[in-house]
Amino acid sequence: xxxxxxxxxxxxxxxxxxxxxxxxxxxxxxxxxxxxxxxxxxxxxxxxxxxxxxxxxxxxxxxxxxxxxxxxxxxxxxxxxxxxxxxxxxxxxxxxxxxxxxxxxxxxxxxxxxxxxxxxxxxxxxxxxxxxxxxxxxxxxxxxxxxxxxxxxxxxxxxxxxxxxxxxxxxxxxxxxxxxxxxxxxxxxxxxxxxxxxxxxxxxxxxxxxxxxxxxxxxxxxxxxxxxxxxxxxxxxxxxxxxxxxxxxxxxxxxxxxxxxxxxxxxxxxxxxxxxxxxxxxxxxxxxxxxxxxxxxxxxxxxxxxxxxxxxxxxxxxxxxxxxxxxxxxxxxxxxxxxxxxxxxxxxxxxxxxxxxxxxxxxxxxxxxxxxxxxxxxxxxxxxxxxxxxxxxxxxxxxxxxxxxxxxxxxxxxxxxxxxxxx
Length: 423
Known about the structure:
- The chain is of the alpha/beta class.
- The chain is built from 16 helices and eleven strands.
């Protein structure tokens, strides 16, 4: 509200600053608004300074929140215990990942300290059949650490200049996930899914330009190792007029996942499981039903990943195929178990949901048949629950039990081929 007293005798109210009360002849410039309110140059300068100070304070808060403290970083055992709440089995993989993630953030917390030893980044490769939890593990770790996280599909990446997405677009997604805070993005996690799909398409790369295979691998090298990249916040191809933001990838943790279907043959050849005579090795202790557990970096090379890319992802671990017991546990035991989700949804409509034990066994049987891992559980449950989810909100029934007979009738309505088509 404007002051009622004027510094100059006889000065009219409309000739005074509405904020400080100074008269027009006491200031250099006086700006008048459409409603008759005035503001002098001194008040404008004071307001501008306050805005600057506020912006610097907010930037300092963002910078402080993006820094990693070793004291606040969960220890490997704590990471593993947190993962156990959401993921069934995969103990060996989760132990390897817990150590890799903790080592990475230990490296970040040591930045700025005087040390003769420079710690290198350890990106991670997860190898395992579809539906075993590769993406879930990466997403759960990001939730635990409260850092920006994004998932990118390697199948859509191409070399710059070709139809598809540039490799730099994965950094744009991380920048957006970090709420456009570059410092926070530089300490985030990127999960590259389907990394096996960019394997070299042929043994001789000179025959044709492999823009979606080896070309993408070459483009990923510098980003994985650590470099400063000009990132388009909204995506470069759709918004070419925007200003670029520089992001240093040196401290971004990359986790790559892939099924690597068929790599077992290369593992078998390397282990000489078919050799006979004097060159034969002792293969009696080899688990022939799960050769993936013996995977080595050279197997990724023989599959089609270039040596430079394999070398930049030194932590290699495998995920076990899900057994019947693991699939049964996934239905009910994790914090975000599939059955618990359906119960929570119907509870919002004041409906109590129950699955009989033989119904759960039937769901597991069909999941094993479809060979889609844990994803098959969700697919089958969606089929079974479709009519229930449709009718329950409008029904007066307050307790629903899903029996095996009802589940079988629901699943058998679909042609079996349509369920197996995605396997």
